[in-house]
C-alpha cells in the first residue's frame, strides 16, 4: 500500500473533525507515522495562550479519538506489517503520541560527552540518551526551515533515482573516445 492509497483510505474512515487537511503519512522501515489535522477551535490572540490552547485541543482530540485510532492502526498493521504511531497538528503545535525508540550507536568525543553530561547534571535530561535526544530536537527546532528544504531535495533525488532504468550488461562497457579538443588539432 502506497502513501497516497493509505491517505485516501484513512480519509474515508476518519470523521470530518479530524480531516481539516489530509493526514501526513510517512512509512519508515520500522513504523508508519500518521499525523492528523483536527479542525481548529477559535484560538486566543496571545501567542502563549494560543500555544497552550492548541496543546489542550490536541490532548482532548487524542483522548476522544483513541479507540478509533487503535482500530485503524490494527487494520493498517495487518496490511503493512508495521506498527503505527499517531500524532496531531493544530496551528503551530504538533505532538507525536507514541513512536518507537530504537538504539542508535554513535561514537562521541570528549567534548560531545561533556555536553551530554552537563545536560544530565543540570537536570535537563535524565540520561545521556535523553540528553542526546534533547539536542537533536533543539537543532531541529532551530533549523526547521533548512531541514525542510533539505528533505525536499532528498525527496527529489529519490524520485530521480526511481526513474533510472539500469539494464544488466555483459562484458566490459565500451566507452567512446573523447571528442578531440581544439588543443589536439594541428594546423
Query: What summary fits the major beta sheet?
Result: 4 strands, mixed
Q: Gap between N and C termini, in Å? A: 65 Å
How many β-strand stretches? 4
How many helical elements?
6
The total domain count is 2
What's the helical proportion of residues?
40-55%
Helix/strand order, N-terminal first: HEEHHEEHHH
Mean pLDDT, as a whole number?
A: 88
Shape: extended
Structural class: alpha+beta
Give an overview of the whole structure.
By secondary structure, this protein is an alpha+beta fold. It has two domains: about 1-100; about 105-165, no CATH class. Helix content is about 50%, strand content about 10%. It contains six helices and four strands. It has helices at about 5-15, 45-65, 65-80, 110-120, 130-140, 145-165; strands spanning about 25, 30-35, 85-90, 95. It has a four-stranded mixed β-sheet. A hairpin with a 2-residue loop joins strand 3 (about 85-90) and strand 4. Helix 4 (about 110-120) crosses helix 5. The radius of gyration is 24 Å and the shape is extended. The N and C termini lie far apart (about 65 Å).
Amino acid at each position: 500500500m502506497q502513501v497516497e492509497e493509505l491517505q485516501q483510505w484513512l480519509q474515508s474512515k476518519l470523521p470530518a473533525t479530524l480531516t481539516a487537511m489530509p493526514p501526513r503519512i510517512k512509512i519508515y522501515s520500522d513504523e508508519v507515522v500518521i499525523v492528523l489535522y483536527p479542525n481548529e477551535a477559535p484560538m486566543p490572540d496571545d501567542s502563549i495562550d494560543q500555544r497552550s490552547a492548541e496543546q489542550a485541543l490536541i490532548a482532548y482530540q487524542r483522548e476522544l479519538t483513541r479507540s478509533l485510532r487503535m482500530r485503524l492502526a490494527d487494520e493498517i498493521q495487518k496490511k503493512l506489517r508495521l506498527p503505527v504511531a499517531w500524532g496531531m497538528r493544530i496551528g503551530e503545535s504538533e505532538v507525536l503520541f507514541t513512536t518507537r525508540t530504537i538504539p542508535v550507536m554513535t561514537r562521541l568525543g570528549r567534548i560531545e560527552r561533556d555536553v551530554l553530561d552537563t545536560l544530565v547534571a543540570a537536570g535537563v535530561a535524565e540520561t545521556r540518551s535523553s540528553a542526546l535526544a534533547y539536542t537533536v530536537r533543539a537543532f531541529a527546532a532551530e533549523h526547521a526551515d533548512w531541514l525542510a528544504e533539505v528533505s525536499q531535495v532528498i525527496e527529489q533525488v529519490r524520485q530521480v533515482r526511481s526513474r533510472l532504468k539500469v539494464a544488466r550488461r555483459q562484458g566490459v562497457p565500451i566507452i567512446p573516445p573523447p571528442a578531440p579538443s581544439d588543443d589536439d588539432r594541428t594546423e
